[in-house]
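Fold it.
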Amino acid sequence: MVNGIIGKKIGMTRIFREDGTVSAVSVIEAGPCTVTDIKTKKRDGYEAVQLGYGETHRLTNPEKGHLRASGSQARHLREFPLDEALEVGQKITVDIFQPGERVDVIANSKGKGFAGVVKRHHFKGGPKTHGQGDRHRAPGSIGAGTFPGRVIKGMKMAGHMGNARTTVQNLEVVQADLERNLLFVKGPVPGARNTLVMIRRSNKSLR
């Protein structure tokens, strides 16, 4: 069985469970995906399955050659660990997940543009009195002077916020709708609507 699937984020809603409780869930259109390639240790140095999701007619000749065996015109290609034998061209649907399973969801977070240290790193800011009229949201000291005489790598400063690969771990699968290719997972997942997401089985135990 393949370890994951590709999809896109639809939005959020709520689901009433059988015991009467309400859960806020993220709705993901997961699959159907096509097996486009099987990575082998002999040929590629590792074992994995490559899945294709979505369709596009704007493929380059190398891409067409790569996808010819699977018969798909996949727009997005991603790899997942392989647990059992699969065949190129085989379809992977949302029924690989069952309610109650735990999954990790990987996607690019929402882009926030250029942001200062208060918004980006939750700095407290400077004093609001004693003549400090322009230091309210300033970063403060960013390093020593003579030695080392430079800003240390990794210093938290203002810059581009968001639009980074983000993983939310150990989310519960509340429902899997095979007819509509929808997966309902408890809680929020990264990204805006229509963001490409990867869903894989979580290897974390319940706490």
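The first helix runs from residue 41 to 44.
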